[in-house]
Specification:
The complex is a heterodimer. By secondary structure, chain A is α/β, with parallel strands linked by helices. Chain A has 10 helices and 17 strands. The longest helix of chain A has 27 residues. Chain B has one domain. Classes of the chains: A alpha/beta, B mainly alpha.
Amino acid sequence: MIYVWSVLSFAGLTVTLAAVLMVAEQLLVNYGVCKLDINAGEKPLEVEGGRTLLESLYANEIFIPSACGGKGTCGHCKIIVSSGGGPVLPTETSHLTRKEIRMHVRLACQVKIREDIYVRIPEEMLNVKMFSATIQSTIQLTYDIKEIRMKLNDPAEISQRPGQYVQVEAPSPDGDVFRAYSISSPAYQPEMVELVVRLAPGGVASTYLHNLNVGDPVSFTGPYGEFYLNEDPSTEIICVGGGCGMAPIKNIIYSIYDRWPDRSCWLFFGCRTTADIFYLKEFEELSAKHENFHVVYALSDELADGGRWEGETGFIHLAVDKYLEAGIARQAFLCGPPPMIEAVTRVLKGKGITAEDIFYDEF
Amino acid sequence: MNETSALIILVAAILTNNILLTNFLGMCSFIACSGQIGTAVGLGTAVTFVMTTTTMLNYVIYHCVLIPLGLCHLTFIVFIVVIAAFVQFVEMFVERFSPKLYFALGIFLPLITVNCAILGASLFMIIRKYNFLQSVGFGLGAGLGWALAIILMAGLRQKMRYSNVPEPFRGVSIAMIVTCVLAMAFMGFAGMVAIQ
């Protein structure tokens, strides 16, 4: 009998407390409709208060980049909140510099809308759209890198610049997550988006993408990214990459030779072993057509027994150092692991390229 | 029945029977959040408020519900649920009516739910057979005592940033040693007032 009483009274207490909390929530956490003003009246919205800024923007089809799904860990969703955002929270401070805090930069996923709020969003981000697409083809490039080509359905075309990226929506046990991937298909093929994805052990999105088959639906937002290719054809373009850092570089190179067939461009690509090499044949064909395009692949590990390799050996920054002459107007785009970027940046600065002309993407 | 006056219990709970330094309750948040004086003050305030109110609430529930129904074996679980629910309620209330305080307390409010000192205060009140007024005194005193300890600790740790602590002791180890010294210092108050 005592057990029945215990269970009943404990259940009763829990239910009462839960009910009190729910009533309190209804009464207290109700902010009504708030005004959400973007870029000083350019796009006034009315949103339900009590949700985060990021959620409200997504609900209104404004896709701010965010990789962690609003947990406050990636720091991608920075936007300027000119008023109505409350003070900067402890969860944000680790992602913001002092200068950014002075400029009222906030993490959109941490700002809760409690009153009328005024935000500034770069024009480009307002043009970001949600795309639905179908897998057109998948090609295994190396043991862990796959090329995935997606045909766009709605909208049917994407207007992108080389170097930009999309955020693919991948299902996970904790709800959908978005992960960023650079677009590897050139800008003159607006009807599709191609990605080069390395399978990260335990990675949610890369596992999802690697397991997709032809005909499967996929959705992503984009394009994002601030990289602008130098429009002056006399400026030489240097691309240095490693692993899946190939994606933006492939886009840059094909877009360049579509517009400026005679423009000078170098591609340096670092691999560990012959098993890591991909796209070499395609680039050699391209280089045969355009005499000013130079391809250099380098292997950093010792050759395995019976392997054949006639190209460069050693880390890629050594090859960059060997081939480039100093004192030519250049723009460099680096994409690969941080130690590679650091070493190559040092070499390029030694060749007289200023820091403003070196763009990089670490992963 | 305990005859000590509520005021004496209040003073004793702050100094001689400091819940943190003599009973070692609430150690985890004490070690984790004593890096800066600002956060220590915020967390200390929140703990004091929640401790005082939950002791009152739990006193009422214990004497008006659990004893009449003969359900004293449910004390622990009921107290925990009441504390958790109350903290949730306080969080909503503060967020609505004082956003400033809400932001000042920030993430510390929900952290209190898992602070064992809060549950400890409610349980001591039962063990020591306090009446309502004594319980209020004890809850408030224990909260203030906890706040005092964490603020002192934060001050010491801020000073310690400029000291040359030997490598193996850096971080939590030196914090534990300093807590120990602090606890011994508080033993100096021992003869002043005594509560059971």
